[in-house]
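Q: I'm writing up a methods section and want to include an example of the input and output format. Could you take the sequence below and give the corresponding predicted structure tokens, formatted cleanly so I can copy it straight into the document?
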Amino acid sequence: MKSICVYCGSSSGAQPIYIEQARLLGTCMAQAGLALVYGGASVGLMGAVADAALAAGGNVIGVMPTSLIEKEIDHKGLSELHVVSNMHTRKAKMAELSDGFIAMPGGAGTLEEFFEMWTWSQLGYHLKPCGLLNVAGYFDGLITFMRHTVEEKFVKAEHVDMVLVETEPQALLQRLADYKPIFVPKWVDRVATEA
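A: Here is the clean output for your methods example:
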């Protein structure tokens, strides 16, 4: 594993621990020799994880569509900044550059990007690990919902288990490094649905 994509908020959130853990994640990644791939912003958790990785000597690669350059305030000190035409290209480029994916606290965009990578994993489009850094219980409700999708037979338990969840950056990075890819077909049991 050489690079990890981190999805997180362009805001700082309500609690100081979100910024603290973003900085710790960036530092840990740099110390482990892992390149950070992220959305390219200089603000919020995005800016914090990038700044910390850079300060620790890490390689930081941003990917940002032209329409967000001014809105998200692109980071001027990155190792690389890829400016792309749209969000679809952004997500594809980030996926291409990354060997694994982590979501930190963030909003709808963070969840959408992470869920797309998790879905691609379920479909076998990639076999890269996907993890949630569950800072201060931020993702507790989401994890409960994911289990609910299994109970209601919309998602297989094996697919939910693909999502690695930890509360500390070091532990999550180790789980991603140790990940053994699995592929379980996503398709539902036709006998059960046609009966």
